[in-house]
Amino acid sequence: MAKGRAVAVMLDDAEQAALTALIRKHGAPQSLALRARIVLAAADGLTNKEIAMHLNVCAHTAGVWRNRFARDGLDGLYDEPRPGAPRQIGDDEIAATIRKTLETRPQGATHWSLRTMAKAVGHSPSTIHRIWQAFGLQPHRTETFKLSSDPLFVEKVRDIVGLYLSPPERAVVLCVDEKSQVQALDRTQPLLPMRPGQPERHTHDYTRHGTTSLFAALDVKAGTVIGKCMPRHRTQEFRKFLDEVERNVPANLDIHVVMDNYGTHKTKLIRNWFVKRPRWHVHYTPTSASWINQVERFFALLTDRAIRRGVFRSVADLERAITAYIDTNNADPKPFRWTKSADDILASI
């Protein structure tokens, strides 16, 4: 090739797909994505000057990565090993540190810290940090889980997920539950409003002004919510709420209700109420599996957006805020989109 003439770049299908994936990959280094864009532009026939103008780089940079790709392929886009001091810790020592992290605990503590591990193995805390970071070890973190022990877990998951993904015709699917003992909390001193460089601030202590219980039914398809606040959450209140739902759903539609195994949902009064109304079909969630009830997600949004940072001087104030949030939601409803099939859920568990 004559000096000064750009190297021609030809891509096969695999290289084209790999370069495109580098650009779209979430979390990929931006420098690597830029190099992939340079190579794709070169394959489209652009000169180095045109690439430089289009991608806001200098022509020399465009030429470097064009030539590196032409010479080494995809491997040429990655940084070459840089010179530096040799490693002071060998593979055997790294493996021993990892085993100690995973299989042992320090005396008198539940988990290792950087300093306690560094003292135990004789390396600096920064070295331990690099080892843990490289292998994704975070001894200071812990997460919770709860597996359902329901003997009909598989059947119930398939039943409820089937309702979400393929709801029956001429029917409405409602996720029902109660958010009990919602506290009307007032701060002991006035809020300090947000201003540039300072978030909103409030006192850590509070005054209680009573509680209310929210009964809610989320329409899975429409995203609307039927909600009613009551002072208690006994069987009597739950039956009154079911009467409210009955009045709000057109008489020509069947009602499939998804709810948990809470005691008030299964009393004789409630069972008799359902028996007298054949258009109602009850689907109980598995025990210890509230995550499958979509109304729980609505409760989380309600708490985050309308309750947690609210100031309520009475239960009536709290109930007005809850009602206002439900009305706002129903004015522009956005139903949750259920993405996992029952097979996907069971496979992950």
How would you describe what is shown here?
It is a single chain. This protein is of the alpha/beta class and 349 residues long. The protein folds into three domains: 13-77; 91-134, Orthogonal Bundle (Arc Repressor Mutant, subunit A); 153-348, Ribonuclease H-like superfamily/Ribonuclease H (Nucleotidyltransferase, domain 5, 2-Layer Sandwich), CATH 3.30.420. The chain is 43% helix and 14% strand. It contains 13 helices and five strands. The protein has helices spanning 13-24, 30-43, 48-55, 59-72, 91-103, 114-121, 125-134, 153-165, 235-248, 268-275, 295-307, 315-331, 342-348; strands at residues 171-187, 206-219, 225-230, 254-259, 280-284. The chain has a five-stranded mixed beta sheet with strand order 3-2-1-4-5, with helices on both faces. Helix 3 packs across helix 4 (59-72), helix 6 (114-121) packs across helix 7 (125-134) and helix 11 (295-307) crosses helix 12. The protein is extended and about 85 Å long.
Brief summary:
With 349 residues, the chain is of the alpha/beta class. The chain folds into three domains: 13-77; 91-134, Arc Repressor Mutant, subunit A (Orthogonal Bundle), CATH 1.10.10; 153-348, Ribonuclease H-like superfamily/Ribonuclease H (Nucleotidyltransferase, domain 5, 2-Layer Sandwich).
Judged by helices, strands and strand pairing, the structural class is alpha/beta
The number of E-state strands comes to: 5
* CATH C-level name of the largest domain: Alpha Beta
Helix segment tally = 13
Mean pLDDT over all positions: 91
CATH superfamily annotation of the largest domain = Ribonuclease H-like superfamily/Ribonuclease H
Largest sheet, described in full? 5 strands, mixed
* SSE order: HHHHHHHHEEEHEHEHHH
Describe the global form.
extended
CATH topology of the largest domain: Nucleotidyltransferase, domain 5
Low-confidence stretches: none
Overall structural domain count? 3
